[in-house]
Amino acid sequence: MQDIIKGKAYVLGDNIDTDQIIPAKHLVYSLSDPEERKLYGRYALSGVPDAAAGLPKGNVRFVPENDHRSPFQIVIGGKNFGSGSSREHAPEAMQIAGVTAVVAESYARIFYRNSVDGGFFIPFEAVQRLVGEIATGDDLEIDLPKGTLTNRTSGKTYGLRPLGDVLEIIKAGGVFAYARQAGFLKS
Amino acid sequence: MGMTMTEKVLARHAGRKHAAPGDNIWVDVDILMTHDVCGPGTIGIFRKQFGPTARVWDKEKVVVIPDHYIFTNDQHAHRNIDVLRAFVKEQDLPYYYDVGTDKYKGVCHIALPEEGHTRPGEVLFGTDSHTCTAGAFGEFATGIGNTDAALIMGIGKLWVKVPETMRFEFEGPLPPYLMAKDLILHIIGDIGVDGATYRAMEFAGDGVMSLSIEERMTLCNMVIEAGGKNGIIPVDAVTETFVKSKTAKPYQPVADDPDARFHSVRRYKTADIQPTVAKPHSPDNRGTARECKGTKLDRAYIGSCTGGKLNDFLAAAKILKGHQVKTDTYIVPATTEVAKGLATTMLDGQTLVEIFQNAGAKISQGASCAACLGGPSDTFGRLNRSEVCISTTNRNFPGRMGSKTAQVYLASPYTVAASAIRGEITDPREFL
Ligand code: SF4
């Protein structure tokens, strides 16, 4: 687990559900095939309505056409991020597109759990609402030991909530490593 | 200190006398269910983590139900089924409901109880968020992702944070124009799409206990739309009669302790509730059918794990009988058993199939999830343009049933049927 996570911001609103994160028609690609799994990166966040994609202006593609990597690494969300289905393809698609952290006001339970247990990225909860504070394209820096997020573009710093119980799983690198530590699995 | 039903089930499966909200515990799993969309990913992780020759922890406890992308020409979707089939063969799994065979079922959450896999007091995990439907049988049931499912496949355990329980009590049997769908849409409108995040939702009171098992499933099905971890309903004779008709396996029901502690208790009188809809694009965007009267519709859809059971079609048929639909209406039975019921169940001398055909509705030839989640573009009933649709399904997020520009209203089978006849949203009391 690194102490500092840097990246460009991609800002979304409230209730970003898993159908917006990865529309259902794309759930047919293989996650095991190294080439085919890139398609999940290509279509990550492609279900977000155009006006809400990359706030405050909107109409910003998360992933450029015909690419599978996003120029944005830190996704900022509002309330109830990742609601809806249990598809693990959602956090995984974001990871394939290059997301290293999400900072939202709150999460839907299964998405949060999948992000942690699958070891895809760290889902942080912000102390205050960041939608409206941070703009798509801003340079961000997360400091884990300090528990802060700094917007280097505006110079402002915000607090992050402690990771609590899931810190152990995140440190281990996912639920399999955690289960090995707990002695449920041979290493 | 007393425990709620949810706390008791989890404590017992962790080998503990007591469990309290916030405890992180490892629980033993009774059933793991997976389907065609998440099964292949789960199997991939299972092989990677446990090795190419690994066996599942208990083949009697793994249930595989293809249901999402079945009647499509999409080759990738077919490949997913091939992956399931090969795995089931390799692992010699007895509970597999293969496409194109007599065993094929359809929507997993309805297939599970039909096949006897839902039992009071048990722990059920599934790679689908609507696994919470099985809480109707007085068990702990919730949805998980591929990684958690792969871990269970190998070790039969998963860590769980014990949730607080919110209790919802309904007083009085349902008036003849209401269905369980109205109750749950009403609750979600009250507490919001994140109103039960990290919590259990327990439904009780004589209003709930007067419901059929299918209607109880509708209540629990949509707890995830309020962010809930699981839904649960006390076990009574209705539950036990149903479960015993499907399985001979023993089970141990649980009940709330008299001094159980709840996060909150909300009480409703069913007579105060109106036929309810969720307007686009969120299940908590509540309105009544009356308020929405006049909203023009391009499509009506009756199907899914929420509104595609036999009782849902019986309700729709009661209203559609002797009428013509003005709106394109799609009928999709959740399972093959429901499809058989449509052909054999009579209402005033006609089968349900005849009633729907005479009304001008289109009936799907196969049982599956179909357009509930959009699916590949050739899916039956999929919204491919900016249509306005009223549906008995559970989600109306942007793009959920296909096009991002379509608008979906969620409602009970009564309200959907009444609206189909008029071509605009209509309160079912106009027909009942
Ligand atoms: S019918 Fe709809 S909600 Fe139910 S399992 Fe299928 S896709 Fe999910």
Report what the structure shows.
- The complex is a heterodimer of chains A (187) and B (432).
- Chain A is 21% helix and 17% strand.
- Chain A has 187 residues and is an alpha/beta fold.
- Chain A has one domain (4-162): Aconitase, domain 4, CATH 3.20.19.
- In chain A, strands 4-3-2-1-5-6-7 form a 7-stranded mixed β-sheet.
- In chain A, helix 4 (109-117) links the parallel strand 3 and strand 4 (122-125).
- The longest helix of chain A has 9 residues, at 109-117.
- In chain B, 31% of the residues lie in helices and 19% in strands.
- Chain B is built from 14 helices and 20 strands.
- A 5-stranded parallel β-sheet of chain B has the order 4-3-2-5-6, with helices on one face. A 5-stranded parallel β-sheet of chain B has the order 18-15-14-19-20.
- In chain B, helix 2 (39-50) crosses helix 5, helix 6 (180-191) runs parallel beside helix 8 (213-221) and helix 11 runs parallel beside helix 14 (413-422).
- The interface between A and B is large, with 44 and 51 residues.
- Iron/sulfur cluster binds at residues 68, 107, 109, 128, 130, 304-305, 369, 372-373, 393-394 of chain B.
Most extensive interface, chain pair and sizes: A-B, 44 and 51 residues
Major sheet attributes of chain A: 7 strands, mixed
Strand proportion of chain B: 15-25%
Could you tell me the number of beta strands of chain B? 20
- Percentage of residues assigned to helices of chain A: 10-25%
What Rg of chain B, in angstroms, do the CA atoms define? 21 Å
Keywords:
heterodimer, A: 187 residues, alpha/beta, Aconitase, domain 4, seven-stranded mixed β-sheet, 21% helix, 17% strand, B: 432 residues, Aconitase, domain 3, 2 domains, five-stranded parallel β-sheet, 19% strand, binds iron/sulfur cluster
